Amino acid sequence: MANDYRRMWESLGVDLEAHDQLLSILPPTFGTVYMSQENRPEGMEYFNFVFSEVHGLRIQELQEHKAKGGKVIGAFCVFVPEEIIRAAGGICVGLCSGAEIGAAKAEQVLPRNICPLIKSFMGFKLGKVCPYFESCDMVVGETTCDGKKKAFEILNDYVPVHVLETPQMKRDKDKELWRSEVRDFLAEVENFTGNKVTAESLRQAIKDINGKRRALLRLSELRKNNPSPISGKDCLLIEQISMYDDVPRFTVQLNALCDELEVRVKEGNGVGKQGAARLIVSGTPMALPNWKAPHVIETSGAVIVAEEMCTGLRYFENLAPENGETVNDMVGDIAARYLDINCACFTPNKPRMDKLVQLAEEYKADGIIHCSLAFCDPYLVEANRVEKALQEHNIPLLKLETDYGQEDSGQIKTRVEAFLEMIGKK
Ligand code: BJ8
Q: Which ligand 1 atom is the nearest neighbour of the CA of 373?
């Protein structure tokens, strides 16, 4: 089987040597971060399996889809309306960009001091290390931040990129611009896949994606219990996998895990020590395999109960209505649903502050850790507004700025421990 996979990667044009290096890091890291946890729910088996097959089975499924004439479309942002891709018979995969691979190659076309997520996606593409990237017939970019916006021009030299113009404000004229962008995207996807999006296929795709988001919401709700029945690290893994796994299969498996967690809640069977700090993490997305900060936080004795991030609540907290009559109606509904995402690219972004205060109360959180990638201006600057809002509500906050290297793990641990001591949870 391993040989078959190697042949498959080779046929995709993956650089096998660089890919071997990536694969030599992933399993040990996964073992240290995930398999070392105690009292994990049995339902995590499926997600362990999906991760163990990260470049195997799922890639094979994508190839089978392509062999039948289907298209694979990559996305870097939760603004990409995956309902539309699905309705046109395409498969949408979230491209990870969570590892420091191919940095030297990326720096040939990008400045050194740029957000690690941007450097990572360019490094993955130029280094040909990611079979997902190499499976993509098209990539969808967006204009959320300047770094990404300009990097997509360069990426377009290597793979066709369709860029969605995401507004920076949420006024009526911005809503109209975004609606027209979503409409154009639908036409582009129809053209690219050769499949017409019908009212029926779009309604079904909305239902399917809502099903996935509902299962993720159900998982979130269960974490409101004290003790939480599952670790934050496990939930982050599930949220990361939700971006690329088969939609109906993922939904079934996650609901089965939630059934198990409901029993755990009834039995008072939770993770973490009695009285452990309950923390929310907020900030830039943590793309696979970026588990550094959650690992440090949870091995310091706290339990993460929610992620106010795009690998987290921002991805699934809003649903599109399922009763649209026409394609046009549903495009409007989808556009509205996506514009409700509280990304720091918006100004002002008060709904994000309100949401954080609300989440702290709902999840009975002892504090919030704001975790931003280095050189990410939107989140690093917005951390000031977050701090102000949380101070007004006496919610303790720790601000972290980090990248994909492991060098600062010790320093982060010291700061997390000091924070836990400050809030009386150490
Ligand atoms: S909706 S958070 S997924 S843009 S970390 S590349 S912002 S410099 S990732 Fe994001 Fe969409 Fe917003 Fe979510 Fe730029 Fe910042 Fe890098 Fe970022």
A: 5
Q: How confident is the model at residue 53 (pLDDT cuts 50, 70, 90)?
A: very high
Answer whether 2-195 and 204-318+344-425 agree in fold. Answer: yes
Which residue's C-alpha comes closest to atom 1 of ligand 1? Answer: 343
Q: In the structure, which protein residues have their CB atom closer than 6 angstroms to any atom of ligand 1?
A: 77-79, 115, 117-118, 144-145, 147-148, 284-285, 310, 341, 343, 345, 373, 376, 378-379
Task: For residues 29-33, give the mean pLDDT.
Answer: 94
What residue segments make up the domains of the chain, in order of their start? 2-195, 204-318+344-425
Note the pLDDT of residue 100.
Answer: 87
- The structure tokens listed for 74 are 């990559």
C-alpha of residue 134 to centroid of ligand 1, in Å: 22
Question: What is the rounded average pLDDT of the residues 21-26?
Answer: 87
Identify any residues that bridge with 369 across adjacent strands, giving them in sequence order: 281, 398
What are the contacts of 269-272 at 24+ separation with CB within 8 A? 269/39, 269/227, 269/229, 270/225, 270/226, 270/227, 270/228, 270/229, 271/37, 271/38, 271/39, 271/227, 271/228, 271/229, 271/230, 271/231, 271/303, 272/227, 272/228, 272/231, 272/298, 272/301, 272/302, 272/303
| Domain 2-195 = CATH 3.40.50.11890 | yes
Q: CA 375 to CA 115: how far, in whole Å?
A: 5
End-to-end CA distance of the chain: 47
Instruction: Give yes or no for residue 360 having a pLDDT over 60.
Output: yes
Reply yes or no on whether the pLDDT at 103 is more than 90: no
Tell me how far apart the alpha carbons of residues 165 and 215 are, in angstroms, rounded to a whole number.
30
The CA 149 to ligand 1 mean position distance, Å, reads: 11
Residue of 284, 346, 349, 372 to test ligand 1 pocket, by largest number of atoms within 8 Å of CB: 284
* Span from the CA of 375 to the centroid of ligand 1 (angstroms): 11
pTM of the entire structure?
0.97
Enter the CATH code of domain 204-318+344-425: 3.40.50.11900
Distance in Å, CA 145 to ligand 1 centroid:
7
Q: Do residues 396 and 112 lie in contact, with contact meaning Cβ atoms separated by under 8 Å?
A: no
User: What is the distance in A from the centroid of ligand 1 to the CA of 116?
Assistant: 11
- 185 has a pLDDT exceeding 70: yes
User: In angstroms, what is the C-alpha Rg of the chain?
Assistant: 21
Which atom, in ligand 1's list, is nearest to the CA of 344? Answer: 12
Task: Read off the DSSP letter of residue 202.
Answer: H
